[in-house]
Structure to design on (71 residues):
């Protein structure tokens, strides 16, 4: 009986630690899918898609001329 209570406490502490580690790993921006967090932007000389979490450009399209009403 003297060994059961510390063993239960050790198991609970280990479970809480492992759950915290998994939450920390999943919250890091290195372990995400950019496809789920895509945002579109458009500027005067190019447009494209970028990830909202890691701010990495996914797709960029450059215009041959600047878009304006005057030629």
């Amino acid at each position: 009986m003297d060994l059961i209570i510390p063993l239960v406490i050790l198991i609970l502490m280990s479970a809480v630690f492992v759950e915290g580690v998994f939450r920390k790993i999943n919250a890091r921006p290195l372990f995400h899918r950019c496809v789920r967090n895509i945002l579109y932007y458009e500027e005067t000389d190019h447009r494209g898609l970028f990830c909202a979490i890691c701010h990495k450009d996914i797709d960029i399209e450059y215009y041959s001329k600047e878009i304006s009403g005057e030629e």
In short: The chain has two domains: 1-31, 33-71. The longest strand covers residues 46-51.
